[in-house]
Amino acid sequence: MSTSSWPAARSATPPPSRSAEARGQALASLAALQGLRPEWEALWAQVPQASPFQHPAWLLPWWRHVGRGTLAAVAVRSGAGELVAFAPLHACPQGDRRRLFPLGMATTDDLTPLVRPGWQAQAAHCIGQHIAGQAACDAVECPQQRRGSILLELACAPGWQQAACACEPHPVLDLRDPQAIPKAMRDNVRHCRSRGERAGALRLQTAGAQQLEECLAALERLHARRWAARGQAGVLHDPAVRAMHREAAPQLQAAGLLRLHALRVDGAIAAVAYCLQHARRCHYYIGGFDPAQAAISPGTLLVAHAIEQARSEACTEFDFLRGREAYKYRWGAVDEPRFALRRWRAAS
Fold first, then answer.
1. What is the CATH number of domain 3-168+337-345?
2. Is residue 342 within 8 Å of residue 139, measured between CB atoms?
């Protein structure tokens, strides 16, 4: 890749000023990561664009159940000891190489480090030093970075090469525009509702603590059934991924981040939509529906419900997350770019 693929002009990161010094603290154990949780949550709350995917309620269960290799996270602290940035990383063998990845790889749609506003330069300096000091690693792979991520602006360390490129975008629906959903889709939703009402008693609900277990089990079952009909395994086929979500969901709900929507037909769950919500953005993570109910388009009905609920909670964006599946654009979503950083040791 050439450096012309960078999303913004690259310049060397200046060292921290004397008036705002910072230092990096390496975290190499689960106990250290768990011990950081109160400060991590406080930092997350101070970052205006923080997403649920950067919250410890998501990433700690991911590391316990899905993560592989060794932790190589770095916390950036001010001179007074306050946590001002956090890059949760891990080193993992891949073939004959050892690569550095963000926590959450493969199952997470935002891998951007957390940085308190005003600390970008100091955080970039400390995180860059930390990454350069990973002597056992041959490469760094950091996809799903938002525009403005400090990782995209790191100066390249001596003996390394690096490049950034566009990766899978996020199709996003603008909820501020009441006409953003195309007329054809609005008409389709009305027709689906009419067919559904004729098929049986419909009930839409958002799971509370008492319904969480039932809805998660239904999501696993319906998601697997949908993908089995295509002759493929779905995202939830891996027992480790299912265990991660079983642990994460109650924590996400307790933090006010989870929206687990269900559609019932005559009392039985016909579709489930797993959404995460924060800072006026609803993220549609995964869904499942009963193929036997395809005539009433339960998936369409539930996405429509999730969008309506997000609007009712003053959300301004409905993020369908990475991937260019056609159905996302039928809802009127428009691509929002995401970027990937790659760094590798230069040939000697």
1. 3.40.630
2. yes
| Per-residue pLDDT tens digits for 306-337 | 999 999 999 999 999 999 999 999 999 999 99
Query: What are the pLDDT digits (tens) for 34-48?
Result: 999 999 999 999 999
Cα-Cα-Cα-Cα dihedral of 4, 6, 7, 9, to 10°? -80
Instruction: Calculate the CA 98 to chain-centre distance.
Output: 24
Counting beta carbons within 10 angstroms of the beta carbon of residue 29, is it exposed (0 to 12), middle (13 to 18) or buried (19 or more)?
A: exposed
* Residue extents of the structural domains in the chain: 3-168+337-345, 176-315
Nearest to 119 by CA among 264, 262, 214, 21: 21
Q: Give this prediction's pTM.
A: 0.92
State how far Cα 89 lies from the chain centre.
Answer: 15
Burial class (CB within 10 angstroms; exposed 0-12, middle 13-18, buried 19+) of 194? exposed
176-315 is classed CATH 3.40.50.720: no
Q: Which of 135, 155, 131, 152 is nearest to 143 (CA)?
A: 152
Rounded Cα–Cα distance for residues 68 and 73 (Å)? 13
Tens digit of pLDDT for each residue in 88-119?
999 998 888 899 999 999 999 999 999 999 99
Instruction: Give me the phi and psi of 5, to 5 degrees please.
Output: -85, 0
